[in-house]
Amino acid sequence: MLFPPDKNLKKIRWHPGISAHLEKGWKYCSKAWKEVRLHKTTWLRSEILQRVIQELLVDYYVKTQDTNVTSEDKKFHETLEQRLLVTELARLLGPTQDGEAPPLLGLEKADLLQLMPPSEDFVWMRARLPQEVEEQLKKKCFTLLCYHNPSSDSDSETLKAAKVWNLAEVLVDEKQQCQDAKSRQKEQTVLLEKKSATYSQVLLRCLALLQRLLQEHRLKTQSELDRINAQYLEIKCSAMILKLRMEELKILSDTYTAEKVEVHRLIRDRLEGAIRLQEQDMEKSQQVLNTYEVLGEEFEMLVKEYTQLKQATENKRWALQEFSKACR
């Protein structure tokens, strides 16, 4: 509000000069707003009329593409269009004054007025125009009503007219409700943003506190935790080794029965006895070999000669045996 309401004026009337100036300003402001509303209403009325006439012409030309129109309709719409175009062009040319630039395309208003339709056609068109405009406006109002309330499509024209009469108030109320809802939504959005910012700051502080607690307390207990983990792993490893040993013993006990063990023991005793005998023979042979090594190279020559004689004797014996077999 540009000026306070009357109830506020009453509160400050203790100073006559200020009160008089405020009342005078309030009157001027009210008068100015009335003039503004009046000019706005006049402009809206002319703008609506202009658009309705243009829609009439558009609907006429669309209608001519599908159906044949009567001569009266054709005459009416052509006269209306001609009058509208000439009036618009005359308005664009504007008033001419001496010393100004030449008019657009060298045209004068007098040239355009020659294109006006005949006066009798204009009078006839103007007499019919309110009815056409009324029909167009009624059609638009009914269309708006059916769009706003689809159930009204099946109503009669009288009932539709009655509903259209109250449609403006309904739309104003709905507009006010929408504005109130937008205002509440805006307030809720601002409140939500404030709460989001507050919650974000609280969460950040909580995270910082948790991080500090983790850094302080976990570092103190980390060594103890590592020691407990090491003991646990050591015990677990020992248990695993014992379990492996138990599995090994179980496999051995299942593989080697008492009879098999006894047989293995006998075999081992015999093998050990044979090994002892072989060791004794090897010891004797080693002693004999040592004795022979003391004799020197002459003994080696005698050994070679003995070996050769022994081999020759065996060959002759074999030949004798073969000869005896042949004689038989």
UniProtKB/TrEMBL annotation:
It comes from the Eukaryota. This is HAUS augmin-like complex subunit 4 isoform X3. The lineage of its organism: Eukaryota, Metazoa, Chordata, Craniata, Vertebrata.
